[in-house]
């Protein structure tokens, strides 16, 4: 007997004497349309795709870690210094030696618009500032860049950063800065002074009346001490800002270079 069409009976196994697997080998298998995918194939990339992915990831990481270009940093310091001067000129609420009166007789000025607690003693970004010098005709020079370091700042009552301004009242004080001999030996105490709440003024003990300092601190402020601070030049910022290698003396004393970007700051210092 032959099997009916469409049926698979056991008779052919007995008739032909073959094993079941031999007969089943001629039987069509039903295979699923979806092939199993190994886990590693899900994340597999072609060589080209991998290289593109690697390039994008590298650029993204570089974008997060690249520091600010020196020219951009220099311009930002000058602009923030102008803001510091504007604040000091507006806030004079108490009697005594004021910022305006000291500025009027200044021979030079050091402005550090962003001095952070962790930056002092390290220098560079966070503790950088500028020096400007006034000539015999009363005109302010273009800025030379410096950093405040080599010491520490003791902040009180939660203040974590400050804006510092040193008014240089003599030729000797200016020369000390330019010759990298400006150092605040011992402790220079800053106490609440002539600028009202949140502002301080004091005369440095290391150089007598040659330098008068003013400070603006964030938050409630009762005073802080600057121990062993020194000022060092930022040659990288000087070069970037003036597009050539130049020394502080060539900038502030010899007037060999200029940058119109600093004119608003110079005008703010010149105005009463």
Give a quick rundown of the structure.
By secondary structure, the chain is an alpha+beta fold.
Description:
- The strands form 2 sheets. Strands 7-8-5-1-2-3-10 form a 7-stranded antiparallel beta sheet. Strands 4-9-6 form a 3-stranded antiparallel beta sheet, with no helix packed on it.
- It has 10 helices and 10 strands.
- The chain is 33% helix and 21% strand.
- It has helices at residues 11-16, 20-24, 39-42, 47-65, 70-90, 99-104, 171-178, 235-242, 248-252, 263-270; strands spanning 108-116, 128-133, 144-149, 152-154, 161-168, 187-191, 199-203, 211-217, 223-227, 230-233.
- It folds into 2 domains: 11-65, no CATH class; 70-270, no CATH class.
- Helix 5 (70-90) packs across helix 8 and helix 5 (70-90) runs parallel beside helix 10 (263-270).
- The protein is globular, with a radius of gyration of 37 Å.
- It has 272 residues and is α+β, with helices and mostly antiparallel strands.
- The model is unreliable at 13-25, 38-45, 61-65, 119-126, 154-158, 186-207 and 219-224 (pLDDT under 50).
Q: Radius of gyration, rounded?
A: 37 Å
**Unreliable parts:** 13-25, 38-45, 61-65, 119-126, 154-158, 186-207, 219-224
Give the ordered list of helices and strands: HHHHHHEEEEEHEEEEEHHH
Distance between the termini: 123 Å
Oligomer: single chain
Domain Ysc84 actin-binding: 150-271
Organism: metagenome
Protein name: Ysc84 actin-binding domain-containing protein
GO molecular function, one term: phosphatidylinositol binding
């Amino acid at each position: 007997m032959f099997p009916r069409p469409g049926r698979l009976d056991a008779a052919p196994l007995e008739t032909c004497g073959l094993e079941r697997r031999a007969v089943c080998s001629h039987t069509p298998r039903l295979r699923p349309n979806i092939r199993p995918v190994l886990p590693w194939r899900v994340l597999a990339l072609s060589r080209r795709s991998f290289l593109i992915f690697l390039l994008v990831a590298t650029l993204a990481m570089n974008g997060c870690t690249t520091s600010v270009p020196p020219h951009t940093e220099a311009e930002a310091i000058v602009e923030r210094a102008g803001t510091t001067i504007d604040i000091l000129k507006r806030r004079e609420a108490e009697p005594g030696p004021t910022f305006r009166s000291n500025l009027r007789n200044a021979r030079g000025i050091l402005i550090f618009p962003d001095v952070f607690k962790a930056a002092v003693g390290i220098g560079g970004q966070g503790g950088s500032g500028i020096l400007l010098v006034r000539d015999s005709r009363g005109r302010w020079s273009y800025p030379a860049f410096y950093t405040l370091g080599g010491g520490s700042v003791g902040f009180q009552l939660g203040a974590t950063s400050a804006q510092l301004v040193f008014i240089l009242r003599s030729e000797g004080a200016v020369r000390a800065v330019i010759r990298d001999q400006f150092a605040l030996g011992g402790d220079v105490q800053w106490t609440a002074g002539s600028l009202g709440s949140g502002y301080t003024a004091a005369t440095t003990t290391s150089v007598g009346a040659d330098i008068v300092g003013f400070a603006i601190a964030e938050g409630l402020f009762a005073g802080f001490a600057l121990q062993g601070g020194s000022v060092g030049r930022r040659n990288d910022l000087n070069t970037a800002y003036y597009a050539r290698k130049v020394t502080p003396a060539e900038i502030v004393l010899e007037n060999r270079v200029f940058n119109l970007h600093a004119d608003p700051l110079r005008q703010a210092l010149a105005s009463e």
